[in-house]
TrEMBL record:
Record keywords, A-Z: DNA recombination, DNA-binding, Transposition
Pfam families: DDE_Tnp_IS240 (PF13610)
Matching PROSITE patterns: INTEGRASE (PS50994)
Name under which the protein is recorded: IS6 family transposase
GO biological process annotation, one example: DNA integration
Function: Involved in the transposition of the insertion sequence.
Integrase catalytic domain ranges (all copies): 64-226
One of the record's GO molecular function terms: DNA binding
Superkingdom: Bacteria
Keyword DNA-binding tagged: yes
Length: 227
């Protein structure tokens, strides 16, 4: 259960504001106005603090509760502006488009790619195959993961495919994230970017039906993550 003590606002109000910001392309000032129209007087700075504090916690719950994913992965990175500079946003989906994992990095190199693959495997298990682009860094990172798997004697290594058209599914999936982050006009700090992106991915997972709905609306599924 996520603790909302000391926030001075009802839990449902906080969750509604966070969900609206993460699901729709609005700025904090837009959201401040939307909340005011609903009788809630909250400034954009407070809304920002709510997202940064609670979005990562909700994302962790979503990862632990999501439905099983396929063993054929698609991995790619896109760009997110932080403090006026472009950073690298690693993402992976399975061959049906379900979100696997995501990671923001200040660098695009072998170490970053390896860290991302180890993180994704820790969350989803070892895949049968991974489709990547022609990036040498991604290839080297995945090959280093295979070395670790061989050393551990697990008997499983990952088949690596570098076939551009097979990655169309994740390139299309990037568009949702870009649509939501567009009105944000970049992030002022790396940690707030990480937190917000984790929340956006959670809302996107709900949109794609990756959680057990049990007849709940999208917002109700989101709110249930806090229980």
């Amino acid at each position: 259960m996520i603790d909302f003590k000391g926030t001075h606002f009802p839990k449902d109000v906080i969750l509604f504001a966070i969900f609206f910001y993460l699901r729709y392309p609005v700025s904090y000032r837009d959201l401040e106005e939307i909340m005011e129209e609903r009788g809630v007087d909250v400034d954009h700075g407070t809304l920002d603090r709510w997202v940064v504090k609670f979005a990562p916690l909700l994302a962790t719950q979503a990862q632990s509760r999501k439905k099983p994913t396929a063993e054929s992965w698609r991995m790619d990175e896109t760009y997110i502006k932080v403090k006026g500079k472009w950073t690298y946003y690693y993402r992976a989906v399975d061959n049906t488009g379900k979100t696997l994992d995501f990671m923001l990095s200040e660098r695009r190199n072998k170490a970053a790619a390896r860290r991302f693959f180890k993180r994704a495997i820790g969350t989803n298990g070892v895949p049968d195959r991974v489709v990547i682009d022609k990036s040498g860094a991604n290839l080297a990172g995945l090959e280093s993961v295979n070395v670790i798997l061989k050393f551990m004697g697990s008997g499983n290594t990952i088949k690596i495919l570098q076939v551009k058209y097979l990655n169309n599914i994740i390139e299309q999936d990037h568009r949702f994230v870009k649509r939501i982050t567009g009105p944000m006009l970049g992030f002022k700090a790396f940690h707030s970017a990480e937190a917000t992106l984790a929340g956006i991915e959670t809302a996107h997972m709900i949109r794609k039906g990756q959680l057990h709905a049990n007849g709940l609306t999208a917002f109700q599924q989101f709110a249930a993550l806090a229980a």
